Structure formats: C-alpha cells, structure tokens
Amino acid sequence: MENTNTPLNFWSQVWQDGTIRFHQNVYNQQMVSKFRNADLKNKTVLIPLAGKTRDILFFLEKGAIVTAIEFVEQAAIEFFTENKIPFTKENNIYRAENLTFIISDFFKYTTKAKFDVMYDRASQVVFAPEDRPEYYQHMSTLIDSHTDLLVGAIYHQGPAGFGPPHKISPEEVTTAYKKMGIHLKSFAEQTNTTNEKLQALGVSTMTSYYLTNH
Ligand SMILES: C[S@@+](CC[C@H](N)C(=O)[O-])C[C@H]1O[C@@H](n2cnc3c(N)ncnc32)[C@H](O)[C@@H]1O
User: Fold this and answer.
1) Cα–Cα distance between 209 and 172 in angstroms, integer?
2) Residue 194 lies in a domain
3) What is the pLDDT of residues 155-205, one digit of tens each?
4) What is the DSSP letter of 107?
5) Which of 126, 137, 151 has most ligand 1 atoms within 8 Å of CB, for mutation?
6) Exposure winner among 82, 113, 118, 173, fewest CB in 10 A?
7) pTM for this one?
8) Ligand 1 pocket check: which of 26, 66, 71, 166 to mutate, most ligand atoms within 8 Å of Cβ?
C-alpha cells in the first residue's frame, strides 16, 4: 500500500491541528540584530519554509522585496488575514506590495537570479539528516557568495532520531555552505535547559545558534 504520510500531508495536518509551536508573535531577535542597520531597500530576500512568520513584515518594513516559500496554503492565508495585508492570488502565488508568497514545495521552486539575502529560521531543522544534502543542494541554486545569510539551527548532545526539529551540528551547516563557496561564522548562540519531556529522552540542554557570512 502507498505510504500517504508525505511531508506535505504531515505539515498540512500540523497546520490543521494548529500545533505550530514554532510560530512566534514577535520578531526574531537575532534577525533584528543582524539586519537592523542594514540597507535592505530593494534587496531581494528569500525566506524558505516560511510558515506564517511575522519576520516577513520586518523585511518589508526595511523596503526589501521578499519571496516566501511554503507548501501549506493555510499558512499563507493565515499570514495575510492575521496581518490584514491585501493580496492578489494567481494560481499558487499570493502577491502583496514587495511580497511574493509562493505555495510550493521548496525543492520545486527555481529562479535564475540569486537572492541578496537569505534568512533561514526553523527551516533546515525540518529535514532529517538523509534529506539535508538535497536541501543544501537546492539552496545552492538560489544563493551565492554575495548573498547575506542568517541561518539558524538547534543542537543538543542527546540521541538523534526525533524531530522535527532535528538537531544539526554547526560543523555540518558550515561544511554544507562551504561547498557553495559561502563561509559561515557564529553570530549568536544560546543554551537552555529543556523541558521534562526532552529530559526523559536524554536531552538535558538545547543550544540554539545562528550563523552568518557577512
Ligand atoms: C518549523 S516551521 C518554520 C516556519 C517559519 N520559518 C518560522 O520561523 O515560523 C517549517 C515550515 O516549513 C513548511 N515546510 C516543510 N517542508 C516544506 C517543503 N519541502 N517546502 C515548503 N515548505 C515546507 C511547513 O509547512 C512549516 O510551515
């Protein structure tokens, strides 16, 4: 029998159930501190696996031209409705001023020009280790060494095997981007004690970190 639990089915269910604990109502603080003083007017910004992140609004306020990619349409609808942003819709593309919100599997999204900025929060951690090479491979078609990156992930010393979010070592991320000619360095790091559920799984602390290149 065909396995119908595809990633799209899995994430559609998450959105339908509203179990979107990853969603934040305030701007991501690392994003703000990285880009607060940057001149982003007319810069193209890629937000992969966007969910309904309000971080999109930050980049729009900075005058950037944002492309968000997300394969669950409900996320886009909630983004435009909750933020009261007028939009037009054509096929799988929602448009607002300076924003193109594309309902697509990330791996199917292609474009010729390389983005000026790429902001990944809670995006690469969606993928299990065996799927991440494809994620980085596809990312390499969308960015290059001129792209300004902020890339976030989590790491812990506990066993692999649960996720999303999947743990990823900073070395894995830096190696993957180095292959694209992009040299990442640490931007911020925070280690917190975990909740009881994770402690029972042998994960006592969780480190959340961000890497950047410029
Ligand atoms: C952990 S959430 C993070 C969302 C957002 N980056 C944030 O910070 O709130 C991951 C999102 O990626 C979407 N997603 C997962 N796999 C995807 C894929 N292959 N293509 C497009 N979207 C995907 C899910 O529906 C979900 O909304």
Assistant:
1) 13
2) no
3) 988 777 777 889 999 999 999 999 999 999 999 999 999 888 888 888 888
4) G
5) 126
6) 113
7) 0.95
8) 71
Per-residue DSSP letter, 106:
G
Overall domain count for the chain: 1
Residue 179 sits in a domain whose CATH number is 3.40.50.150
Residue-number span of the structural domain to which 91 is assigned? 7-12+25-153+167-183
Tell whether omega for the bond before 165 is within 30 degrees of 0, i.e. cis.
yes
Q: How far is the CA of 103 from the centre of ligand 1 (A)?
A: 11
CA angle 12, 140, 64 (to 5 degrees): 75
Distance, CA of 77 to CA of 96 (rounded, Å): 12
Antiparallel, parallel or unpaired: β 93-96 and 148-155: unpaired
- Does 205 fall in a domain? no
